[in-house]
Specification:
Two copies of one chain form a homodimer. By secondary structure, the first copy, chain A, is of the alpha+beta class. Helix content of chain A is about 40%, strand content about 20%. Strand 5 of chain A pairs parallel with strand 4 of chain B.
Chain lengths: ~160, ~160
């Protein structure tokens, strides 16, 4: 099984979704040791979950199947370049490699905000469209101190 | 109820987590029309879900409670500046405003990769630490075409 085969499965998932009312036309597959360990399609609208992008769904499925929060050694195949949420999810999951078909520009042409979100995420907090206010810094930092002092903490 | 009150609740959730083995020391609260509609703490390690950051957990809870994928009109209170995954989740959820306590630098000092992920997300695909390969562009684009031609599609 090669990259084309697994990416074709991700694209097939995106095609199934495209003609449904379940969510956006996106599909993703997580592969480890040569086999599919999780897959998903976008379920934002039908599951009432703005985080249910194909990559997030596939990562959550893979982690549930393998009983771990760490997908080191895995490859993700996605029908479209991940949005910043999904890219960071891939990084947090410690996935090794990504294979994709469409670009953020393709997604933008179909009405999705991925490209604009990439611009927003790259800006300093106070330059973004999302208003932000910072408060209670010292109170907030106490949690990090307590974490560092906790012998049972599990780093990730 | 003011910003300090709701942010204090998010910080309290982060403190509870900090002395547990459930996940990282992060908490978040989503407020709409002056009341809490969803809250969450980080559950990455105990739920085997690398996407279970406090903000994502709180957004999913709020959307489930309200039966919608759109949190326009809501405010998110988070114990720490969101990572790129959570920031993009906030943007996808169309949340109006963000109030936060700690910064990405505070998180980095406690061993978390948020600041490095911000750098990675801002880079062009081929300049990132995550290897990426692009294939089957034309096949992938067919899903966007099918979506645009689908009269039942639900934009988000």
């Amino acid at each position: 099984m090669d990259d084309e085969t697994f990416l074709s499965r991700a694209i097939a998932l995106s095609m199934e979704n495209a003609s449904s009312a379940r969510g956006g036309p996106f599909g993703a597959v997580v592969v480890k040791d040569g086999r599919v360990v999780g897959e998903g399609a976008n379920r934002v609208t039908d599951s009432h979950d703005p985080t249910a992008h194909a990559e997030v769904v596939a990562i959550r499925a893979a982690c549930a199947a393998l009983g771990t929060f760490d997908l080191e050694g895995a490859v993700i195949y996605t029908s479209c370049e991940p949005c910043p949420m999904c890219l960071a999810a891939i990084l947090w999951a410690r996935i090794d490699r990504m294979v994709y078909a469409c670009s953020r520009e393709d997604a933008a042409a179909a009405g999705f905000d991925d490209a604009w979100f990439y611009e927003q995420v790259a800006k300093p907090i106070d330059a973004r469209a999302l208003p932000a206010r910072r408060l209670l810094e010292e109170d907030g930092r106490r949690a990090f101190q307590a974490w560092l002092e906790n012998p049972d903490r599990v780093p990730y």
